[in-house]
Design a protein that fits this description.
Length: about 160
């Protein structure tokens, strides 16, 4: 007898202050150098696009992931995208990228930009499969262990080709 997995209904929901405790729990479980609640609060106050990916409904609803993006003149800068560790490797990052691209196009953006740690090969592979291209590096961009710094890979996605 094999287990049957029920499909999970998901929806995007605007991130609000009331979600920040849950968002920070996911952030802390996903990264050695997580964003703080202040980083998220500042992003909300600045009016950045901040979306949650929620699975299920009612009291059983779960936070699967989220993204925060900043709109520019003809581009969007993805500042943070995170899938909760328990939900990784199931395609949720791609779904959130789809949502980001759809929103970005609706804002008239021609490009989506992001930085990713050089060491984060899994995320870089997700972005490359999605169509992002490596366009440069930012030296010592991210904090690292023992008060060191880590380089970032700068990637971009042309929305006309996505």
């Amino acid at each position: 007898m094999s287990a049957v997995l029920e499909p999970l209904e998901v929806q995007f929901e605007t991130m609000t202050e009331s979600w920040l405790a849950a968002v920070c729990r996911v952030e802390q479980s996903a990264y050695p150098h997580p964003w703080t609640q202040g980083n998220f609060s500042d992003s909300l106050r600045a009016g950045y696009q901040a979306q949650l990916l929620i699975g299920g409904a009612g009291p059983d609803a779960q936070l699967l992931g989220y993204f925060v993006a900043m709109q520019g003149v003809d581009e969007v800068h993805l500042l943070n995208i995170t899938v909760a560790p328990a939900w990784q490797r199931q395609g949720w990052a791609r779904l959130m990228l789809d949502g980001l691209v759809l929103w970005s196009r609706g804002q008239g953006a021609q490009w989506v930009w992001l930085e990713v740690r050089v060491s984060n090969t899994r995320a870089r592979a997700v972005y490359e499969r999605y169509g992002f291209r490596h366009v440069g590096n930012r030296r010592q961009y991210y904090p690292a262990d023992a008060a060191g710094r880590e380089d970032a890979v700068v990637m971009s996605l042309a929305l006309s080709a996505a």
